[in-house]
């Protein structure tokens, strides 16, 4: 998979060879306006309001030589509608998030494969493990000219203020559980610290509560380094770190101590890294357009030891029981019978408001 285009409110970029570390030696699409991308993914993040009126979020339209348009629109209740027009062919879909209790960030992933006559639009909320998807027949390809108009803002184009970023890939991108550590992250093993990239199925790692456990799988994914994927640097010696590490905003850390017991009646809790950003102990990391994350899948939802601090390993719940969700995830290439079931997170996961409150108390 290769990310070909990335746009936000500060920058727009596109390369038919791929972006940043995802760049290939040769072009992946011919640089001809009529060349068609018959298989790919549009991924974007936006703020959604459950009470707002319909709002066009991300779109392009061109009338020549025939009407062509693609529109993503927010709909009341916190959902998304998509309409694509290619001449006389019209494709449309709508998806509603199940919990629309507050204004929040949503991640939309629209993937299509015209040769298989299949498309899927998924809605996720960062920090949540639930994915809502709808499947679509008769998707239409995007030409190189369409991609330039959509991603670079040429012609009749919309990129609403509520949009955070949008990216385009030439492959079907995964939804659901995602890796959250850099491949270079040092993880504790019985033989000392080893980089995540060097660990394989059958190796063992040290965990906070269970001791030594085997690695079932190591997964990885390259994603746009924007929005809920923008990396965060956790600085030593905060959080018990022996050296700085870089993680995804969705990576959850174990936080313990008297304050945790007093506030939440728990010995330890899991806190997403995004809520720890304070300008000194944790801060956003400058990076290129894309970034590669990895993570370990363990038999239970244990916390691994990374450079001295305890971090959550990959949590997959009971995804093995749902064939569609499994096939849509980063685990799609793995045999279902070899996957574990994680009944619930190893520790209580703080909601956003509790996590922010705890982080502020710690900072003070």
Describe the structure.
This protein is mainly β and 364 residues long. It is 9% helix and 41% strand. It is built from four helices and 28 strands. It has helices spanning 144-152, 258-264, 323-327, 352-363; strands at residues 3-7, 12-14, 36-37, 39-48, 55-62, 68-75, 79-86, 89-95, 104-113, 118-124, 131-136, 142-143, 156-159, 163-169, 186-189, 192-195, 204-207, 211-214, 217-224, 232-234, 245-247, 252-256, 268-272, 282-284, 290-297, 303-306, 309-312, 348-349. The chain has a seven-stranded antiparallel β-sheet with strand order 2-1-14-4-9-10-11, with helices on one face. It has a five-stranded antiparallel β-sheet with strand order 8-7-6-5-13. A three-stranded antiparallel β-sheet has the order 21-20-24, with no helix packed on it. The termini are far apart. The model has no long low-confidence stretch (mean pLDDT 89).
Shape: globular
In total, how many beta strands?
28
* Distance separating the two termini: 44 Å
**Beta-strand content:** 35-45%
Main sheet properties:
7 strands, antiparallel
Main β-sheet, spatial strand arrangement: 2-1-14-4-9-10-11
Count of separate DSSP helical elements: 4
Helix content: under 10%
How confident overall, as mean pLDDT? 89
Radius of gyration: 21 Å
Question: What is the topology?
Answer:
Elements: E1 3-7, E2 12-14, E3 36-37, E4 39-48, E5 55-62, E6 68-75, E7 79-86, E8 89-95, E9 104-113, E10 118-124, E11 131-136, E12 142-143, H1 144-152, E13 156-159, E14 163-169, E15 186-189, E16 192-195, E17 204-207, E18 211-214, E19 217-224, E20 232-234, E21 245-247, E22 252-256, H2 258-264, E23 268-272, E24 282-284, E25 290-297, E26 303-306, E27 309-312, H3 323-327, E28 348-349, H4 352-363
């Amino acid at each position: 998979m290769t990310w070909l285009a990335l746009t936000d409110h500060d920058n727009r970029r596109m390369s038919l060879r791929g972006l940043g570390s995802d760049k290939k030696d040769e072009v992946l699409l011919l640089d001809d306006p009529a060349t068609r991308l018959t298989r790919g993914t549009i991924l974007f993040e936006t703020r959604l309001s459950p009470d707002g009126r319909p709002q066009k979020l991300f779109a392009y339209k061109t009338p020549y030589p025939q009407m062509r348009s693609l529109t993503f629109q927010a709909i009341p209740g916190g959902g998304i509608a998509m309409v694509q027009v290619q001449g006389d062919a019209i494709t449309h879909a709508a998806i509603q998030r199940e919990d629309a209790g507050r204004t929040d960030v949503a991640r939309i992933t629209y993937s299509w494969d015209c040769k298989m006559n299949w498309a899927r639009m998924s809605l996720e909320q960062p920090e949540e493990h639930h994915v809502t998807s709808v499947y679509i027949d008769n998707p239409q390809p995007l030409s190189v000219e369409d991609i330039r108009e959509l991603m670079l803002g040429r012609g009749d184009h919309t990129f609403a203020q509520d949009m955070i970023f949008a990216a385009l890939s030439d492959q079907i991108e995964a939804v659901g559980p995602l890796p959250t550590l850099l491949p270079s992250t040092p993880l504790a093993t019985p033989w000392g610290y080893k980089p995540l990239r060097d660990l394989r199925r059958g190796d063992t790692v040290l965990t906070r509560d269970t001791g030594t456990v085997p690695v079932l799988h190591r997964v990885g994914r390259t994603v746009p380094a924007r929005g809920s994927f923008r990396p965060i640097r956790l600085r030593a010696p905060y959080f018990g770190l022996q050296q700085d590490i870089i993680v995804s905003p969705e990576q959850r850390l174990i936080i313990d101590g008297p304050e945790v017991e007093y506030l939440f009646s728990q010995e330890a809790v899991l806190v997403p890294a995004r809520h720890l950003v304070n300008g000194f102990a944790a801060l956003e990391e400058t990076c290129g357009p894309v970034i590669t994350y990895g993570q370990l899948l363990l038999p239970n939802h244990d916390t691994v030891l990374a450079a001295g601090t305890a971090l959550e390993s990959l949590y997959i719940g009971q995804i093995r029981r749902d064939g569609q969700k499994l096939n849509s995830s980063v685990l799609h290439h793995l045999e279902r019978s070899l996957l574990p079931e994680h009944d619930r997170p190893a520790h209580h996961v703080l909601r956003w408001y509790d996590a922010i409150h705890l982080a502020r108390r710690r900072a003070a």
